[in-house]
Description:
By secondary structure, the protein is of the alpha+beta class.
Amino acid sequence: MNTSFFGELLQTISERGRDLLDLARPRRGDAAARSEDLAQLCEDLLSGRGEASGVALAREILNRYSDLTTGPRIAFFEALAGNFGPDHDRLAEAVAAWQQNPTDETAAVLHEAAEPRRQSLFRRLNLAPGGTAALVKMREQLLDALDHREDLSAVDADFVHLFSSWFNRGFLVLRKIDWSTPAIVLEKIIRYEAVHAIRDWDDLRTRIDPRDRACYAFFHPALVDEPLIFVEVALCKDIPGAIAPILAAKREPVDPTKATTAAFYSISNCQRGLAGVSFGHFLIKQVVEEITREYAKLSTFVTLSPVPNFAKWLTHERQSESSTALSPDDTAALALLDDPAWAADPAKATAVQEPLLRAAAYYFLRARNEHGAPVDAVARFHLGNGARLERLDFLGDASDKALRQSHGLMVNYRYELDHIEENHEAYAEDRTVVAANAIKKLVRAPQREPVTVGG
């Protein structure tokens, strides 16, 4: 109710303010004129206006931006990067003042002068009706441009800086998603599911309606009926090692009062424009709190996670003559992976299992990216949130997609409530991968024949 009232109030202010402005639109066919005019309107917005006219102008800017095609949109981002950074003259004066008299007051002036004008612009645009949603969409389109325009990264950094404040935990609302949730939200859950596609409404119902299944999502007051991130939960008697029994339409339900394990088997970020703004660790921790209030016997909290880049990494290692991850025997055994039907052949699956798990243990414990962090993005997420690498699940997902991406491998990360902070600190400080001993024992130095150089 309060959010709706505030939105209607902004709408009213915007409508009244528009009457005070002369906002003739440029010709739709003139792309350059549209981009230049939009940048000028942004300058006008920053120059300072009354509340009503400022909100109306912000609304007009966002409306015109939404009309832009790709070329003019890139030109607008270029204007944001080139013309809306810090005021260099003002910044130089503030630096000189602080150097001459380094006080809290001159430091505050310096801090304000160093802030890019883009941030003030985005704050003012956010006052328009629907401004937050429009800016999230704008950033999503900026991310598309960043794939080949690194010079726009400063604009992206300002979006992330502001979104991290606007979408901090204090503003987020946790809601349980069930069959009584409005259809508009349920439709978005189906659309946004990024890990295990939801086929239809019946499939959705099997995931959220039974007593041993649950789904929770974070919402933000400025994005009505738009989930930010959601997690699907299965209540189990033991740690699950495969996804098929969890997703099966016909299965024997678990009595939730007798369940000991809550398995988070799908976590989906819904708003690409909020990439880099982390909600997941808050979501998992709060879901644990919520679900244990209802089911006191739950004591084990794990994920059942995909490993989407493992197959690509393993292919590289198999082709490398100097791989430290694979022994010659393991490399030879893993040649069976080249047979598309290997997983359906019990003999081949058995031959592949041990070398594949040894390679996976190395992948998680030792393989690093250019920043010294684990190469696996899902691992970085859960380890950074304080989880422990608990178990590797051979053929945990035998779907065609999983066989292509991970040779069917899945992983359990375990959240032990008494050790989350300790694990998080170990990862944050040294990129330490906290793992179960059974996984550590799988990693051993491969026995390769010595290589003679120079004959």
